[in-house]
């Protein structure tokens, strides 16, 4: 059995994906489903080995729990239909309690496994620190667990499935193989997107025939993603690694540049992976949900998070923010606050509590460290502050006769948002919260252009040649982004051209990766960043 660490590995691009497509192409529909599931489990075994047991347990448990919920719902419906009107409300309440118990049990099991595997060392370490502060003679052993890659992603899919069955948005699936394919479809199991059952399960089970347009569009998307990852993200990696690991040796300018570079790297790595993932799915005729919509064109932090890691944000919104904000205690709080604080600030109070929970979970989802918690609280503060000062901003711009829809003002908003995002990513990437605070402080207290004047900045992992390649690729991707923002369908226009033009585009993408890709001696490829979350 070969080992596999990334969607960009030779094992995936040259072995697993082509073999899976070839097998899929020659089989009848019913067997195509089985081949997809087989390819998915081979992929997961190659990535995580025996840790595939976690995925199997998650799949089997939600299958059983979904049927359990469905059985309770059927019993409730039958009893309500046969009962007089005055007793129906009481019956519904009784059965609702049963369903909530089942959902709570399912969440405790799945989230509990994630918490134990991912966060036990973090919490145990911090408890030991507290014990030392209060001179309590107790020292907890800090265990070390091996995490299966992608556990955060498929755990969230499992929890979403249970909630959607509970809310009757979808029926519980009696077909274990269909549910297993939804949970484990190999292009998206490692880094998402976080799919809902209603989005992908049926189309996966339908297993349509291969179509020329799907294959070509899928390959285009894969090549575009490879260009982002291999040319830009991997080329930036050594510089970022050197600065963040030895930040004490560098001035504020170098640290600021590294924060911008890491923000670019993270986007190119993750969005490039999503291009490859969605392209892989498209080859089979599967439409996976988009995870990015040009986030660096955002005018506010709130808009940025509607465009960045879209499926994660939608999951937090649907399964944490809305349930909390619509709960009885917060609805009462909103009603009272509205009377005292008005229609704008009143709802913000209850909304802030729900938003706080979302961003605490968001920070912890990314990792078990105080810098990740700070990252979540940083964005919580920015979004809340943006909502609070919006009336003031409207008043000031009106007084100053600034047209908020004008191009200069929109450019100012985009640049401001980009700077705030880069600051957040500085803390996100820093080796700990203290290191992040120290790096941020250096930007203001030790800012110098000496590294540019003596050109020592070009000795930290990226020379002038590397910088030029990255700059040219960023300009190219920026132009593509502008066209997409204007709703210009680039791939459809390329597909409408004659065969010479089409293949010229394909070869240009391939040659750019071959010629300008950061691989070989002197380069350190980026490990799958979001797969570790």
What tags apply to this protein structure?
533 residues; mainly alpha; 19 helices; 0% strand
Structural description of this entry:
The chain is mostly helical. It is built from 19 helices and no strands. It has 3 domains: 10-209, no CATH class; 211-292 and 430-533, no CATH class; 309-429, no CATH class. It has helices spanning 10-26, 29-48, 52-82, 85-133, 151-166, 176-184, 197-206, 212-245, 252-283, 301-307, 310-325, 328-366, 370-399, 407-429, 433-445, 450-453, 464-485, 490-496, 499-516. The relative contact order is 0.10. The model has no long low-confidence stretch (mean pLDDT 92).
- Through-space gap between termini: 25 Å
Structural class: mainly alpha
Instruction: Specify the overall morphology.
Output: globular
Gyration radius (Cα, Å) is 25 Å
Low-pLDDT runs:
none
Number of strands: 0
Mean pLDDT metric:
92
**Order of helices and strands, N to C?**
HHHHHHHHHHHHHHHHHHH
Q: So how many helices?
A: 19
User: The biggest beta sheet, please?
Assistant: none
Number of domains: 3
């Amino acid at each position: 059995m070969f080992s596999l660490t990334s969607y960009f590995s030779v094992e995936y691009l040259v072995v697993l994906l082509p073999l899976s497509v070839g097998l899929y192409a020659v089989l009848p529909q019913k067997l195509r489903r089985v081949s997809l599931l087989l390819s998915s489990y081979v992929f997961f075994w190659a990535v995580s080995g025996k840790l595939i047991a976690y995925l199997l347990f998650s799949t089997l448990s939600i299958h059983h729990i979904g049927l359990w919920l469905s059985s309770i719902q059927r019993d409730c419906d039958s009893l309500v239909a046969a009962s007089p009107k005055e007793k129906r409300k009481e019956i519904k309440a009784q059965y609702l309690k049963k369903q909530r118990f089942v959902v709570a049990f399912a969440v405790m099991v799945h989230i509990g496994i994630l918490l134990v595997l991912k966060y036990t060392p973090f919490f145990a370490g911090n408890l030991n620190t507290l014990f030392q502060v209060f001179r309590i003679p107790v020292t907890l052993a800090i265990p070390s667990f091996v995490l299966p890659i992608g556990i955060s992603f498929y755990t969230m899919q499992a929890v979403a499935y249970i909630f959607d069955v509970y809310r009757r948005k979808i029926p519980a699936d009696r077909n274990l193989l269909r549910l297993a394919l939804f949970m484990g479809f190999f292009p998206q199991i490692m880094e998402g997107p976080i799919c809902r059952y209603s989005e992908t399960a049926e189309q996966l089970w339908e297993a349509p025939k291969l179509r020329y347009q799907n294959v070509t569009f899928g390959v285009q998307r894969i090549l575009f993603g490879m260009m982002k990852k291999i040319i830009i993200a991997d080329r930036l990696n050594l510089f970022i690694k050197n600065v963040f690991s030895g930040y004490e040796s560098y001035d504020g300018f170098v640290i600021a540049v590294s924060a911008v570079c890491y923000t670019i790297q993270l986007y190119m790595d993750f969005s490039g992976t999503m291009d490859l993932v969605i392209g892989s799915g498209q080859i089979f005729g599967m439409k996976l949900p988009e995870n990015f919509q040009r986030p660096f064109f955002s005018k506010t932090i709130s808009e940025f998070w509607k465009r960045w890691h879209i499926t994660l944000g939608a999951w937090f919104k649907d399964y944490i923010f809305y349930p909390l904000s619509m709960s009885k205690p917060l609805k009462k709080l909103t009603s009272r606050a509205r009377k005292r604080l008005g229609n704008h600030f009143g709802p913000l109070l209850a909304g802030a509590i729900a938003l706080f929970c979302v961003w605490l979970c968001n920070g912890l989802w990314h990792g078990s460290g105080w810098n990740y918690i700070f990252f979540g609280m940083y964005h919580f503060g920015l979004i809340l502050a943006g909502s609070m000062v919006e009336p003031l901003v409207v008043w000031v711009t009106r007084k100053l006769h600034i047209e908020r829809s004008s191009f200069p003002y929109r450019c100012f908003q985009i640049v401001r948002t980009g700077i705030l995002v880069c600051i957040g990513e500085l803390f996100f990437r820093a080796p700990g919260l203290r290191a992040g605070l120290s790096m941020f402080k250096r930007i203001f207290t030790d800012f110098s252009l000496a590294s540019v004047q003596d050109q020592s900045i070009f000795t930290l992992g990226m020379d002038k040649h590397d910088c030029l390649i990255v700059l040219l690729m960023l300009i190219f991707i920026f132009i593509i982004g502008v066209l997409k923002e204007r709703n210009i369908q680039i791939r459809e226009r390329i597909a409408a051209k004659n065969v010479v033009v089409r293949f010229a585009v394909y070869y240009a993408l391939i040659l750019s990766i071959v010629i300008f890709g950061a691989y070989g001696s002197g380069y350190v490829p980026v490990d799958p960043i979001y797969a570790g979350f």
